[in-house]
Request: fold
Amino acid sequence: MAIARHIALNILRNETPCKKGIKAKRFQAALDTSYGDKSTIEYFLSTHALAL
Reply:
C-alpha cells in the first residue's frame, strides 16, 4: 500500500496547472473522481511521451 500512496503523491506533486497544496489536491481527488482520473492520465501521458 505504501508504494501506491507514493505513486499517488508523485502524481499530485507533478501536476503543474494546479497551484494548490498536496492536501487540497488529495481532498479534491477524493470528492471528484474525474479529477483523479484526469491527473493520472496526464501524468502517464507525459512520462510515456518522453520514453517514445
Remarks:
- Residues 33-51 form the longest helix (19 residues).
